[in-house]
Write a structure and sequence with these properties.
single chain, Jelly Rolls, six-stranded antiparallel β-sheet, alpha+beta
Length: about 290
């Protein structure tokens, strides 16, 4: 099987099917996120728009997740990338409920990334809150006591995934977006952004489930940023099996002489020169 990266939010088809999750990997097999150096992760995101995470999923986790690809009952939609000129390969969006390990990763990563997302929102104010379609979250006690602009802005992304998904569902975005991506030799993923509606969480994560240099060659994760009045800059990122990349969904703040300005990013996967590659994409906003 093969890996990939997350995908285009414009095409979603199919309904939720019934699924049996007894053979899926357990959330307990996932390593603790608390042991990671989150200040360094945030610094990398601020500096370059992405941060690499060390192997979090075990080889058994990766194999179990990849094996789910064959069970169509677990997915709401399958996309043939060539058909829509997205690249060469395919991917499938999980249906609700998500497999336990995918749900656990999505919840735990969101909780770690929401504070970073809110700090980015402050740096990009005042335009950013309207762009992501979020209103300040004043449901917590602190928000009720302190009604200053900064306080409201910093609470725009709730501290839990459940709170954020309630906002998505209220906006008509109710379909889950985590997905498995599969590529074979000659496969690739065009540069794109994963936007599925008015609400978009500014960070997302991709786990590579296959072994670079063993299961496949080529297939690096690509990230290209377009700076205002400057040439684009690209990164080609090799990712170990079970490891992940956290990266900006659409844009990130960059410090300038007159405050922060926004830099647009797109991501993709370079051409596989041999073998097969599979990856797990964790997107936090749901889709219309």
């Amino acid at each position: 099987m093969m890996p990939g990266t997350l995908h285009h939010g414009t095409l979603h088809h199919g309904g939720h099917g019934g699924q049996t999750l007894t053979d899926s990997p357990s959330v307990s097999s996932v390593g603790s996120f608390s042991a990671l150096d989150w200040p360094s992760i945030e610094a990398a995101l601020d500096t370059q728009g992405f941060a690499k995470l060390p192997p979090i999923l075990s080889p058994d986790d990766c194999e179990s997740l990849a094996s789910l690809y064959q069970d169509d009952a677990l997915f709401r939609s399958r996309i043939d990338m060539a058909r829509f000129r997205f690249g060469a390969g395919e991917y499938k969006y999980f249906a609700a409920p998500l497999p336990p390990i995918v749900q656990g990763l999505r919840e735990d990563l969101y909780a770690r990334l929401a504070p970073i997302a809110n700090r980015w929102l402050v740096r990009l104010k005042p335009a950013a809150p309207s762009e992501v379609g979020l209103k300040p979250d004043t449901t917590n006690d602190e928000g009720k006591k302190n009604k200053g602009t900064n306080n409201k802005t910093t609470s725009a992304y709730p501290p839990t995934l459940d709170g954020f998904l309630r906002k998505c569902h209220a906006a008509g975005q109710t379909r889950p977006t985590p997905l498995l991506l599969s590529y074979s030799a000659g496969g690739y993923n065009c540069l794109h952004q994963d936007i599925y509606g008015d609400l978009a969480f500014p960070l997302q994560v991709v786990f590579v489930l296959s072994r670079a240099g063993v299961d496949y060659t080529g297939g690096e994760f690509l990230l290209v940023e377009q700076r205002p009045r400057a040439q684009s800059r690209g990164h080609a990122i090799a990712v170990e099996q079970g490891a992940a990349v956290v990266f900006a969904t659409r844009e990130r703040p960059v410090a300038g002489t007159r405050g922060s300005y926004r830099v647009v990013l797109r991501h993709g996967v370079s051409t596989l020169t041999s073998g097969r590659r599979m990856s797990l994409g964790i997107i936090f906003h749901d889709a219309k």
